[in-house]
Amino acid sequence: MARAPVLQLSDISLTYGGDPVFDGLSLTVQPGDRVALVGRNGSGKSTLMKVMAGLVEPDRGEVVLSAGISTGYMEQDPDLSGYETLGEFARDGLPEGEGYRVDMAAEGLKFDPVRPVATASGGERRRAALARLLAQAPELMLLDEPTNHLDIQAIGWLEEHLSQTRAAFVLISHDRAFLRRLTRATLWIDRGEVRRQERGFEGFEDWREATWAAEDDARHKLDRKIKAEARWAVEGISARRKRNQGRVRALAALRAERSSQIRRQGTAAMALDSGPQSGKKVIEAQGIAKTFGDRTILRPFDLRIQRGDRIAFVGPNGAGKTTLIKMLTGEIAPDEGRVTLGTNLEIAVFDQARAALNPDQSLWESLTGDPEMRVSGRADQVMVRGTPKHVVAYLKDFLFDDAQARAPVRSLSGGEKARLLLARLMAKPSNLLVMDEPTNDLDVETLDLLQDLLGDYDGTVLLVSHDRDFIDRVADTTVAMEGDGRATVYAGGWTDYQAQRGEDRPETAAPGPALRPSAAPAEKSKPAQAGLSFTEKHRLEALPGVIERLEAEIAKLSEFLSDPDLFTKAPAKFEKASLALSDRQAALADAEEEWLTLEEKAG
Protein backbone atom coordinates (compact mmCIF):
# COMPACT_ATOMS: atom_id res chain seq x y z
CA MET A 1 0.00 0.00 0.00
CA ALA A 2 1.32 3.43 -0.93
CA ARG A 3 2.46 5.50 2.03
CA ALA A 4 1.34 9.06 2.61
CA PRO A 5 3.84 11.81 1.70
CA VAL A 6 6.03 13.04 4.54
CA LEU A 7 5.51 16.65 3.42
CA GLN A 8 3.20 18.21 0.87
CA LEU A 9 3.17 21.78 -0.48
CA SER A 10 0.11 22.81 -2.48
CA ASP A 11 -0.31 25.97 -4.60
CA ILE A 12 2.33 27.95 -2.66
CA SER A 13 2.77 31.61 -3.52
CA LEU A 14 5.24 33.95 -1.83
CA THR A 15 6.17 37.54 -2.60
CA TYR A 16 8.65 39.82 -0.86
CA GLY A 17 7.34 43.18 -2.02
CA GLY A 18 8.19 42.64 -5.69
CA ASP A 19 8.13 39.83 -8.21
CA PRO A 20 6.88 36.55 -6.69
CA VAL A 21 9.55 34.16 -5.42
CA PHE A 22 7.08 31.31 -6.03
CA ASP A 23 3.64 31.27 -7.59
CA GLY A 24 1.42 28.19 -7.64
CA LEU A 25 4.22 25.90 -6.44
CA SER A 26 3.30 22.33 -5.48
CA LEU A 27 5.59 19.46 -4.46
CA THR A 28 5.77 16.41 -2.23
CA VAL A 29 8.49 14.69 -0.22
CA GLN A 30 7.99 10.95 0.14
CA PRO A 31 9.19 8.68 2.98
CA GLY A 32 12.87 7.84 2.48
CA ASP A 33 13.36 10.49 -0.21
CA ARG A 34 16.93 11.71 -0.73
CA VAL A 35 16.45 14.94 -2.62
CA ALA A 36 18.91 17.47 -4.02
CA LEU A 37 17.45 20.99 -4.05
CA VAL A 38 19.32 22.94 -6.72
CA GLY A 39 19.07 26.29 -8.49
CA ARG A 40 20.93 29.50 -9.11
CA ASN A 41 22.04 31.72 -6.22
CA GLY A 42 19.05 33.88 -5.34
CA SER A 43 16.53 31.53 -6.96
CA GLY A 44 14.87 30.86 -3.59
CA LYS A 45 16.35 27.55 -2.43
CA SER A 46 16.82 28.60 1.20
CA THR A 47 13.44 30.37 1.21
CA LEU A 48 11.71 27.23 -0.06
CA MET A 49 13.45 25.16 2.61
CA LYS A 50 12.23 27.60 5.29
CA VAL A 51 8.69 27.23 3.92
CA MET A 52 9.09 23.44 4.22
CA ALA A 53 10.32 23.86 7.80
CA GLY A 54 7.37 26.11 8.69
CA LEU A 55 9.63 29.10 9.41
CA VAL A 56 8.28 31.22 6.54
CA GLU A 57 4.54 31.60 6.02
CA PRO A 58 3.52 31.67 2.35
CA ASP A 59 1.12 34.31 1.07
CA ARG A 60 -1.10 31.58 -0.31
CA GLY A 61 -1.21 27.82 -0.31
CA GLU A 62 -0.93 24.97 2.14
CA VAL A 63 2.00 23.19 3.82
CA VAL A 64 1.01 19.79 5.22
CA LEU A 65 3.32 17.67 7.37
CA SER A 66 2.07 14.13 7.94
CA ALA A 67 0.85 13.39 11.46
CA GLY A 68 3.57 12.18 13.81
CA ILE A 69 6.44 13.16 11.51
CA SER A 70 9.32 15.04 13.15
CA THR A 71 11.28 17.60 11.15
CA GLY A 72 14.76 19.00 11.67
CA TYR A 73 16.10 22.07 9.88
CA MET A 74 19.71 23.18 9.70
CA GLU A 75 20.00 26.79 8.67
CA GLN A 76 23.12 28.57 7.44
CA ASP A 77 23.35 30.98 10.41
CA PRO A 78 22.13 29.20 13.58
CA ASP A 79 21.21 31.26 16.65
CA LEU A 80 23.07 30.00 19.76
CA SER A 81 22.15 32.86 22.07
CA GLY A 82 21.25 31.69 25.56
CA TYR A 83 23.65 28.75 25.56
CA GLU A 84 27.00 28.63 27.36
CA THR A 85 28.73 25.96 25.29
CA LEU A 86 28.35 24.34 21.88
CA GLY A 87 27.55 21.02 23.56
CA GLU A 88 24.76 22.57 25.67
CA PHE A 89 23.18 23.91 22.48
CA ALA A 90 23.58 20.62 20.60
CA ARG A 91 22.13 18.50 23.45
CA ASP A 92 19.10 20.73 24.03
CA GLY A 93 15.89 18.75 23.51
CA LEU A 94 17.49 15.30 23.61
CA PRO A 95 16.02 12.73 26.03
CA GLU A 96 18.08 12.18 29.16
CA GLY A 97 20.87 9.69 28.63
CA GLU A 98 21.16 10.28 24.86
CA GLY A 99 23.79 13.02 24.98
CA TYR A 100 26.26 10.47 23.62
CA ARG A 101 24.67 11.05 20.21
CA VAL A 102 26.07 14.59 20.21
CA ASP A 103 29.50 13.33 21.31
CA MET A 104 29.54 10.87 18.38
CA ALA A 105 28.55 13.60 15.93
CA ALA A 106 31.08 16.02 17.47
CA GLU A 107 33.86 13.50 16.88
CA GLY A 108 32.86 13.00 13.26
CA LEU A 109 32.25 16.68 12.54
CA LYS A 110 35.31 17.81 14.50
CA PHE A 111 34.15 20.34 17.04
CA ASP A 112 34.64 20.57 20.79
CA PRO A 113 31.34 20.39 22.75
CA VAL A 114 32.88 22.26 25.72
CA ARG A 115 33.87 25.22 23.55
CA PRO A 116 32.14 28.40 24.87
CA VAL A 117 29.64 29.82 22.42
CA ALA A 118 31.15 33.28 22.94
CA THR A 119 34.53 32.20 21.50
CA ALA A 120 33.27 29.75 18.85
CA SER A 121 33.83 30.54 15.19
CA GLY A 122 31.01 30.60 12.65
CA GLY A 123 32.13 27.22 11.34
CA GLU A 124 32.07 25.67 14.83
CA ARG A 125 28.56 27.02 15.42
CA ARG A 126 27.36 25.47 12.16
CA ARG A 127 28.92 22.12 13.06
CA ALA A 128 27.19 22.22 16.45
CA ALA A 129 23.86 22.92 14.74
CA LEU A 130 24.44 20.01 12.36
CA ALA A 131 25.34 17.71 15.29
CA ARG A 132 22.15 18.76 17.09
CA LEU A 133 20.02 17.86 14.08
CA LEU A 134 21.75 14.50 13.52
CA ALA A 135 21.48 13.60 17.23
CA GLN A 136 17.74 14.33 17.23
CA ALA A 137 17.35 11.94 14.24
CA PRO A 138 14.12 13.46 12.81
CA GLU A 139 12.18 11.62 10.10
CA LEU A 140 12.64 14.56 7.71
CA MET A 141 15.92 16.48 7.61
CA LEU A 142 16.19 19.82 5.82
CA LEU A 143 19.88 20.59 5.31
CA ASP A 144 20.98 23.98 3.95
CA GLU A 145 24.65 23.84 2.87
CA PRO A 146 25.73 21.35 5.58
CA THR A 147 29.23 20.92 4.11
CA ASN A 148 30.22 24.58 4.46
CA HIS A 149 33.09 24.87 6.97
CA LEU A 150 33.58 21.09 7.05
CA ASP A 151 36.93 19.66 6.01
CA ILE A 152 37.08 16.72 3.61
CA GLN A 153 37.33 14.14 6.38
CA ALA A 154 34.24 15.53 8.13
CA ILE A 155 32.37 15.66 4.81
CA GLY A 156 33.24 11.98 4.34
CA TRP A 157 31.88 11.18 7.81
CA LEU A 158 28.66 13.08 7.09
CA GLU A 159 28.27 11.32 3.73
CA GLU A 160 28.56 7.95 5.41
CA HIS A 161 26.09 8.91 8.15
CA LEU A 162 23.47 10.19 5.68
CA SER A 163 23.94 7.23 3.36
CA GLN A 164 22.88 4.91 6.20
CA THR A 165 19.91 6.89 7.54
CA ARG A 166 16.33 5.79 6.90
CA ALA A 167 15.08 9.36 7.26
CA ALA A 168 14.02 11.45 4.30
CA PHE A 169 16.16 14.49 3.60
CA VAL A 170 16.24 17.51 1.32
CA LEU A 171 19.73 18.82 0.70
CA ILE A 172 21.10 22.13 -0.59
CA SER A 173 24.82 21.97 -1.36
CA HIS A 174 27.42 23.31 -3.78
CA ASP A 175 29.49 20.12 -3.34
CA ARG A 176 28.78 18.05 -6.45
CA ALA A 177 30.58 14.95 -5.17
CA PHE A 178 28.45 15.07 -2.00
CA LEU A 179 25.22 15.46 -4.00
CA ARG A 180 26.11 12.69 -6.44
CA ARG A 181 26.86 10.24 -3.64
CA LEU A 182 23.70 10.85 -1.60
CA THR A 183 20.72 11.92 -3.73
CA ARG A 184 18.15 9.89 -5.62
CA ALA A 185 15.84 12.69 -6.79
CA THR A 186 16.32 16.33 -7.77
CA LEU A 187 14.17 19.41 -7.20
CA TRP A 188 15.25 22.21 -9.52
CA ILE A 189 14.13 25.81 -8.88
CA ASP A 190 14.20 27.84 -12.07
CA ARG A 191 12.49 31.25 -12.33
CA GLY A 192 9.97 30.48 -9.59
CA GLU A 193 9.04 27.06 -10.98
CA VAL A 194 10.06 23.84 -9.23
CA ARG A 195 10.64 20.79 -11.40
CA ARG A 196 11.27 17.29 -10.07
CA GLN A 197 13.21 14.43 -11.62
CA GLU A 198 13.42 10.95 -10.10
CA ARG A 199 17.17 10.82 -10.54
CA GLY A 200 19.90 12.06 -8.27
CA PHE A 201 22.19 15.00 -8.97
CA GLU A 202 24.32 12.82 -11.26
CA GLY A 203 21.78 13.38 -14.03
CA PHE A 204 20.95 17.01 -13.27
CA GLU A 205 23.16 18.80 -15.79
CA ASP A 206 21.95 16.66 -18.74
CA TRP A 207 18.35 17.19 -17.63
CA ARG A 208 18.85 20.95 -17.31
CA GLU A 209 20.41 21.28 -20.76
CA ALA A 210 17.67 19.16 -22.38
CA THR A 211 14.97 21.25 -20.64
CA TRP A 212 16.53 24.52 -21.78
CA ALA A 213 16.99 23.23 -25.34
CA ALA A 214 13.30 22.27 -25.51
CA GLU A 215 12.35 25.65 -24.08
CA ASP A 216 14.48 27.48 -26.66
CA ASP A 217 12.92 25.42 -29.46
CA ALA A 218 9.38 26.23 -28.28
CA ARG A 219 10.24 29.93 -27.99
CA HIS A 220 11.69 29.92 -31.50
CA LYS A 221 8.49 28.34 -32.89
CA LEU A 222 6.35 30.87 -31.03
CA ASP A 223 8.42 33.76 -32.42
CA ARG A 224 7.98 32.43 -35.98
CA LYS A 225 4.22 32.12 -35.49
CA ILE A 226 3.98 35.68 -34.14
CA LYS A 227 5.91 36.99 -37.17
CA ALA A 228 3.65 35.11 -39.57
CA GLU A 229 0.47 36.35 -37.90
CA ALA A 230 1.80 39.92 -37.71
CA ARG A 231 2.60 39.83 -41.43
CA TRP A 232 -0.95 38.65 -42.18
CA ALA A 233 -2.42 41.43 -40.05
CA VAL A 234 -0.45 44.16 -41.85
CA GLU A 235 -1.07 42.80 -45.35
CA GLY A 236 -4.74 42.28 -44.57
CA ILE A 237 -5.28 46.01 -44.20
CA SER A 238 -4.95 46.55 -47.93
CA ALA A 239 -6.48 43.23 -48.95
CA ARG A 240 -9.63 43.48 -46.85
CA ARG A 241 -11.58 46.36 -45.37
CA LYS A 242 -12.65 44.20 -42.46
CA ARG A 243 -9.97 41.97 -41.01
CA ASN A 244 -10.65 38.68 -39.20
CA GLN A 245 -10.93 40.00 -35.63
CA GLY A 246 -10.50 36.48 -34.22
CA ARG A 247 -7.03 36.21 -35.74
CA VAL A 248 -6.15 39.68 -34.47
CA ARG A 249 -7.16 38.67 -30.95
CA ALA A 250 -5.14 35.44 -31.35
CA LEU A 251 -2.09 37.49 -32.34
CA ALA A 252 -2.51 39.64 -29.24
CA ALA A 253 -2.71 36.49 -27.12
CA LEU A 254 0.47 35.11 -28.71
CA ARG A 255 2.30 38.34 -27.97
CA ALA A 256 1.06 38.30 -24.38
CA GLU A 257 2.26 34.71 -24.00
CA ARG A 258 5.69 35.64 -25.34
CA SER A 259 6.04 38.69 -23.08
CA SER A 260 5.02 36.66 -20.02
CA GLN A 261 7.86 34.20 -20.49
CA ILE A 262 10.64 34.82 -17.97
CA ARG A 263 14.05 34.94 -19.58
CA ARG A 264 16.68 32.73 -18.03
CA GLN A 265 19.30 34.51 -15.99
CA GLY A 266 22.60 34.44 -17.81
CA THR A 267 25.88 33.41 -16.29
CA ALA A 268 28.05 36.00 -14.61
CA ALA A 269 30.28 37.86 -17.08
CA MET A 270 33.38 37.04 -15.06
CA ALA A 271 36.84 37.40 -16.56
CA LEU A 272 40.41 37.07 -15.35
CA ASP A 273 43.34 39.11 -16.59
CA SER A 274 46.67 37.46 -15.86
CA GLY A 275 48.44 40.81 -16.22
CA PRO A 276 52.16 40.93 -16.97
CA GLN A 277 53.81 37.53 -17.13
CA SER A 278 55.67 36.44 -14.03
CA GLY A 279 59.06 34.81 -14.11
CA LYS A 280 59.22 31.07 -14.85
CA LYS A 281 60.00 30.35 -11.19
CA VAL A 282 57.16 31.74 -9.07
CA ILE A 283 58.00 30.49 -5.56
CA GLU A 284 60.75 28.30 -4.15
CA ALA A 285 60.54 27.12 -0.55
CA GLN A 286 63.57 25.41 0.99
CA GLY A 287 63.30 23.66 4.34
CA ILE A 288 60.54 25.92 5.66
CA ALA A 289 59.01 25.01 9.05
CA LYS A 290 56.57 26.63 11.47
CA THR A 291 55.61 26.10 15.09
CA PHE A 292 53.01 27.88 17.22
CA GLY A 293 53.82 27.30 20.90
CA ASP A 294 54.25 23.58 21.40
CA ARG A 295 52.32 22.74 18.21
CA THR A 296 54.17 21.90 15.02
CA ILE A 297 52.34 23.32 12.02
CA LEU A 298 54.90 22.39 9.39
CA ARG A 299 58.03 20.24 9.47
CA PRO A 300 60.89 21.16 7.10
CA PHE A 301 59.33 21.28 3.65
CA ASP A 302 60.58 21.97 0.13
CA LEU A 303 58.40 23.13 -2.74
CA ARG A 304 59.05 24.69 -6.12
CA ILE A 305 56.16 26.41 -7.88
CA GLN A 306 56.51 27.36 -11.53
CA ARG A 307 54.45 29.63 -13.73
CA GLY A 308 51.14 28.02 -14.68
CA ASP A 309 51.02 25.49 -11.84
CA ARG A 310 47.63 24.84 -10.21
CA ILE A 311 48.29 23.59 -6.69
CA ALA A 312 45.56 22.49 -4.26
CA PHE A 313 46.21 22.38 -0.51
CA VAL A 314 44.08 19.82 1.33
CA GLY A 315 43.83 18.51 4.87
CA PRO A 316 41.78 18.80 8.05
CA ASN A 317 40.66 22.16 9.41
CA GLY A 318 43.48 23.57 11.52
CA ALA A 319 46.18 21.52 9.79
CA GLY A 320 47.92 24.71 8.62
CA LYS A 321 46.91 25.04 4.96
CA THR A 322 46.32 28.80 5.12
CA THR A 323 49.48 29.27 7.22
CA LEU A 324 51.55 27.42 4.62
CA ILE A 325 50.17 29.57 1.80
CA LYS A 326 50.90 32.75 3.77
CA MET A 327 54.50 31.58 4.20
CA LEU A 328 54.77 30.78 0.50
CA THR A 329 53.50 34.25 -0.50
CA GLY A 330 55.68 36.06 2.04
CA GLU A 331 52.84 37.26 4.27
CA ILE A 332 54.34 35.53 7.30
CA ALA A 333 57.92 34.33 7.85
CA PRO A 334 58.83 30.68 8.48
CA ASP A 335 60.68 29.77 11.69
CA GLU A 336 63.21 27.85 9.63
CA GLY A 337 64.24 27.75 5.99
CA ARG A 338 63.62 30.38 3.38
CA VAL A 339 61.12 31.34 0.69
CA THR A 340 62.27 32.96 -2.56
CA LEU A 341 59.62 34.76 -4.60
CA GLY A 342 59.98 35.00 -8.35
CA THR A 343 60.07 38.20 -10.36
CA ASN A 344 57.23 40.44 -11.43
CA LEU A 345 54.58 38.85 -9.19
CA GLU A 346 51.15 40.45 -8.86
CA ILE A 347 49.16 38.55 -6.22
CA ALA A 348 45.36 38.53 -5.82
CA VAL A 349 43.75 36.85 -2.82
CA PHE A 350 40.25 35.39 -2.36
CA ASP A 351 39.77 35.19 1.41
CA GLN A 352 37.29 32.63 2.76
CA ALA A 353 36.62 34.84 5.80
CA ARG A 354 35.32 37.60 3.44
CA ALA A 355 37.47 40.04 5.46
CA ALA A 356 37.68 42.39 2.47
CA LEU A 357 33.92 42.99 2.66
CA ASN A 358 32.54 45.54 5.14
CA PRO A 359 28.99 44.41 6.01
CA ASP A 360 27.88 48.00 6.66
CA GLN A 361 28.96 49.31 3.27
CA SER A 362 26.76 49.17 0.20
CA LEU A 363 27.83 47.09 -2.79
CA TRP A 364 28.56 50.40 -4.57
CA GLU A 365 30.84 51.55 -1.74
CA SER A 366 32.51 48.15 -1.53
CA LEU A 367 33.79 48.60 -5.08
CA THR A 368 34.38 52.36 -5.32
CA GLY A 369 35.97 52.44 -1.85
CA ASP A 370 38.73 50.02 -2.88
CA PRO A 371 41.84 52.17 -3.54
CA GLU A 372 42.97 49.81 -6.31
CA MET A 373 39.62 50.15 -8.11
CA ARG A 374 38.96 53.85 -7.53
CA VAL A 375 38.86 56.14 -10.58
CA SER A 376 40.12 59.60 -9.67
CA GLY A 377 37.38 62.23 -9.85
CA ARG A 378 34.63 59.75 -10.80
CA ALA A 379 32.50 58.50 -7.91
CA ASP A 380 30.41 56.29 -10.19
CA GLN A 381 33.30 54.55 -12.00
CA VAL A 382 35.56 51.64 -11.08
CA MET A 383 38.77 50.55 -12.76
CA VAL A 384 38.28 47.08 -14.25
CA ARG A 385 41.49 45.53 -15.56
CA GLY A 386 42.78 48.96 -16.60
CA THR A 387 39.53 50.30 -18.08
CA PRO A 388 37.00 52.58 -16.30
CA LYS A 389 33.49 51.10 -16.04
CA HIS A 390 30.29 52.29 -14.41
CA VAL A 391 29.90 50.60 -11.03
CA VAL A 392 26.32 49.43 -11.71
CA ALA A 393 27.29 47.97 -15.08
CA TYR A 394 30.13 46.06 -13.45
CA LEU A 395 27.83 44.76 -10.71
CA LYS A 396 25.43 43.54 -13.42
CA ASP A 397 28.29 41.50 -14.87
CA PHE A 398 28.15 39.54 -11.60
CA LEU A 399 24.34 39.21 -11.68
CA PHE A 400 23.47 42.01 -9.25
CA ASP A 401 20.51 44.20 -10.23
CA ASP A 402 20.16 48.00 -9.98
CA ALA A 403 18.32 47.87 -6.63
CA GLN A 404 21.12 45.87 -4.99
CA ALA A 405 23.82 48.41 -5.83
CA ARG A 406 22.87 50.61 -2.85
CA ALA A 407 21.93 47.70 -0.54
CA PRO A 408 24.24 46.84 2.37
CA VAL A 409 26.63 43.92 2.00
CA ARG A 410 25.07 42.31 5.08
CA SER A 411 21.83 41.81 3.13
CA LEU A 412 23.52 39.48 0.63
CA SER A 413 23.32 35.70 0.66
CA GLY A 414 26.49 33.67 1.02
CA GLY A 415 26.66 33.09 -2.73
CA GLU A 416 26.15 36.79 -3.47
CA LYS A 417 28.95 37.73 -1.08
CA ALA A 418 31.22 35.27 -2.87
CA ARG A 419 30.31 36.85 -6.23
CA LEU A 420 31.01 40.35 -4.86
CA LEU A 421 34.40 39.21 -3.62
CA LEU A 422 35.12 37.71 -7.05
CA ALA A 423 34.13 41.05 -8.62
CA ARG A 424 36.75 42.84 -6.51
CA LEU A 425 39.41 40.22 -7.22
CA MET A 426 38.79 40.00 -10.97
CA ALA A 427 38.93 43.77 -11.50
CA LYS A 428 42.68 43.71 -10.87
CA PRO A 429 45.33 42.17 -13.13
CA SER A 430 47.25 39.38 -11.40
CA ASN A 431 49.58 36.52 -12.22
CA LEU A 432 49.33 34.62 -8.92
CA LEU A 433 45.85 33.80 -7.59
CA VAL A 434 45.46 32.65 -3.99
CA MET A 435 41.97 31.20 -3.55
CA ASP A 436 40.99 30.14 -0.02
CA GLU A 437 37.68 28.20 -0.19
CA PRO A 438 36.31 30.02 -3.26
CA THR A 439 33.56 27.43 -3.88
CA ASN A 440 31.57 28.03 -0.67
CA ASP A 441 27.98 29.05 -1.49
CA LEU A 442 28.49 29.35 -5.26
CA ASP A 443 25.89 27.69 -7.50
CA VAL A 444 26.79 25.00 -10.04
CA GLU A 445 26.76 27.34 -13.07
CA THR A 446 29.10 29.85 -11.40
CA LEU A 447 31.41 27.03 -10.30
CA ASP A 448 31.56 25.79 -13.89
CA LEU A 449 32.44 29.28 -15.12
CA LEU A 450 35.08 29.76 -12.41
CA GLN A 451 36.62 26.41 -13.31
CA ASP A 452 36.82 27.41 -17.00
CA LEU A 453 38.38 30.78 -16.11
CA LEU A 454 41.04 29.13 -13.98
CA GLY A 455 41.72 26.66 -16.79
CA ASP A 456 42.38 29.52 -19.24
CA TYR A 457 44.26 31.69 -16.73
CA ASP A 458 47.89 32.21 -17.77
CA GLY A 459 49.09 32.76 -14.22
CA THR A 460 49.60 30.46 -11.24
CA VAL A 461 46.87 29.29 -8.84
CA LEU A 462 47.16 28.27 -5.19
CA LEU A 463 43.86 26.74 -4.06
CA VAL A 464 42.57 25.75 -0.63
CA SER A 465 39.33 23.79 -0.98
CA HIS A 466 37.30 20.98 0.55
CA ASP A 467 35.34 20.54 -2.69
CA ARG A 468 36.71 17.29 -4.12
CA ASP A 469 35.06 17.69 -7.50
CA PHE A 470 36.43 21.23 -7.94
CA ILE A 471 39.95 20.11 -6.95
CA ASP A 472 39.80 17.32 -9.53
CA ARG A 473 38.70 19.77 -12.23
CA VAL A 474 41.28 22.49 -11.46
CA ALA A 475 44.42 21.17 -9.75
CA ASP A 476 47.41 19.50 -11.39
CA THR A 477 49.17 19.04 -8.02
CA THR A 478 47.89 18.39 -4.50
CA VAL A 479 49.74 19.22 -1.27
CA ALA A 480 48.28 17.09 1.52
CA MET A 481 48.60 18.29 5.12
CA GLU A 482 47.49 15.57 7.52
CA GLY A 483 47.72 17.61 10.71
CA ASP A 484 51.02 16.16 11.99
CA GLY A 485 53.19 18.92 10.55
CA ARG A 486 54.12 16.95 7.46
CA ALA A 487 53.14 18.16 4.00
CA THR A 488 53.32 15.69 1.11
CA VAL A 489 53.06 16.55 -2.59
CA TYR A 490 51.06 14.38 -5.00
CA ALA A 491 50.58 14.81 -8.72
CA GLY A 492 47.03 15.45 -9.89
CA GLY A 493 43.83 16.34 -8.06
CA TRP A 494 41.91 14.78 -5.19
CA THR A 495 41.18 11.45 -6.89
CA ASP A 496 44.82 11.08 -7.95
CA TYR A 497 45.94 11.90 -4.41
CA GLN A 498 43.67 9.22 -2.98
CA ALA A 499 44.94 6.63 -5.46
CA GLN A 500 48.60 7.41 -4.72
CA ARG A 501 48.02 7.61 -1.00
CA GLY A 502 46.93 3.97 -1.03
CA GLU A 503 50.49 3.01 -1.98
CA ASP A 504 52.43 5.64 -0.04
CA ARG A 505 50.42 6.89 2.93
CA PRO A 506 51.75 10.13 4.45
CA GLU A 507 51.71 8.69 7.97
CA THR A 508 54.04 5.84 6.95
CA ALA A 509 56.18 7.59 4.34
CA ALA A 510 59.71 8.47 5.31
CA PRO A 511 60.18 12.14 6.25
CA GLY A 512 61.97 14.34 3.78
CA PRO A 513 61.48 16.97 1.10
CA ALA A 514 58.36 16.76 -1.04
CA LEU A 515 58.15 16.10 -4.73
CA ARG A 516 58.29 18.96 -7.16
CA PRO A 517 54.73 20.08 -8.05
CA SER A 518 54.89 19.03 -11.69
CA ALA A 519 55.83 15.48 -10.74
CA ALA A 520 53.66 12.68 -12.13
CA PRO A 521 52.41 9.79 -9.98
CA ALA A 522 55.33 7.85 -8.59
CA GLU A 523 55.69 4.19 -9.40
CA LYS A 524 55.83 1.67 -6.58
CA SER A 525 58.81 2.20 -4.36
CA LYS A 526 62.14 0.94 -5.65
CA PRO A 527 65.33 0.41 -3.67
CA ALA A 528 67.19 3.69 -3.26
CA GLN A 529 69.56 4.18 -6.15
CA ALA A 530 73.18 4.51 -5.19
CA GLY A 531 74.45 8.07 -5.25
CA LEU A 532 71.02 9.72 -5.24
CA SER A 533 69.57 11.81 -2.44
CA PHE A 534 66.00 11.20 -1.22
CA THR A 535 64.69 14.06 -3.37
CA GLU A 536 66.65 12.95 -6.45
CA LYS A 537 65.41 9.37 -6.12
CA HIS A 538 61.76 10.52 -6.11
CA ARG A 539 62.44 12.92 -8.94
CA LEU A 540 63.96 10.17 -11.10
CA GLU A 541 60.93 7.94 -10.49
CA ALA A 542 58.55 10.79 -11.36
CA LEU A 543 60.27 12.14 -14.50
CA PRO A 544 58.96 9.50 -16.97
CA GLY A 545 55.43 10.56 -16.09
CA VAL A 546 56.35 14.24 -16.48
CA ILE A 547 57.86 13.55 -19.89
CA GLU A 548 54.80 11.57 -20.98
CA ARG A 549 52.45 14.37 -19.90
CA LEU A 550 54.49 17.03 -21.71
CA GLU A 551 54.61 14.95 -24.89
CA ALA A 552 50.82 14.54 -24.80
CA GLU A 553 50.32 18.30 -24.31
CA ILE A 554 52.73 19.08 -27.15
CA ALA A 555 50.80 16.72 -29.43
CA LYS A 556 47.48 18.39 -28.58
CA LEU A 557 48.87 21.90 -29.10
CA SER A 558 50.50 20.89 -32.40
CA GLU A 559 47.20 19.47 -33.63
CA PHE A 560 45.39 22.66 -32.61
CA LEU A 561 47.93 24.87 -34.41
CA SER A 562 47.78 22.72 -37.56
CA ASP A 563 44.56 24.49 -38.61
CA PRO A 564 45.72 26.74 -41.51
CA ASP A 565 42.94 29.28 -40.82
CA LEU A 566 43.57 29.60 -37.09
CA PHE A 567 45.83 32.66 -37.32
CA THR A 568 43.29 34.52 -39.46
CA LYS A 569 40.20 33.48 -37.45
CA ALA A 570 41.62 33.73 -33.93
CA PRO A 571 45.03 35.45 -33.79
CA ALA A 572 44.92 35.74 -29.97
CA LYS A 573 44.34 32.00 -29.57
CA PHE A 574 47.06 31.28 -32.12
CA GLU A 575 49.57 33.41 -30.18
CA LYS A 576 48.59 31.89 -26.84
CA ALA A 577 48.85 28.32 -28.16
CA SER A 578 52.20 29.06 -29.84
CA LEU A 579 53.64 30.39 -26.58
CA ALA A 580 52.28 27.38 -24.71
CA LEU A 581 53.83 25.02 -27.25
CA SER A 582 57.20 26.75 -26.94
CA ASP A 583 57.03 26.52 -23.12
CA ARG A 584 56.11 22.81 -23.23
CA GLN A 585 58.90 22.02 -25.68
CA ALA A 586 61.44 23.80 -23.48
CA ALA A 587 60.11 21.99 -20.40
CA LEU A 588 60.35 18.66 -22.22
CA ALA A 589 63.97 19.30 -23.17
CA ASP A 590 64.77 20.21 -19.55
CA ALA A 591 63.00 17.13 -18.22
CA GLU A 592 64.80 14.78 -20.62
CA GLU A 593 68.17 16.32 -19.76
CA GLU A 594 67.40 16.07 -16.03
CA TRP A 595 66.41 12.40 -16.41
CA LEU A 596 69.67 11.59 -18.23
CA THR A 597 71.72 13.36 -15.55
CA LEU A 598 69.98 11.54 -12.69
CA GLU A 599 70.09 8.17 -14.47
CA GLU A 600 73.84 8.50 -14.98
CA LYS A 601 74.29 9.48 -11.34
CA ALA A 602 72.19 6.54 -10.18
CA GLY A 603 74.13 4.13 -12.40
TrEMBL record:
Keyword RNA-binding among record annotations: no
UniProt superkingdom: Bacteria
One Pfam family per UniProt: ABC_tran
InterPro entries: AAA+_ATPase (IPR003593), ABC_tran_C (IPR032524), ABC_transporter-like_ATP-bd (IPR003439), ABC_transporter-like_CS (IPR017871), ABCF_ATPase (IPR051309), P-loop_NTPase (IPR027417), Val-tRNA_synth_C_sf (IPR037118)
Keyword tRNA processing belongs to the record: no
Biased composition (Low complexity): 517-530
Annotated stretches, region: Disordered: 500-533
ABC transporter domain span: 7-216, 283-517
Transmembrane parts of this sequence: none
Keywords: ATP-binding, Nucleotide-binding
Record protein name field: ABC-F family ATP-binding cassette domain-containing protein
Organism: Paracoccus rhizosphaerae
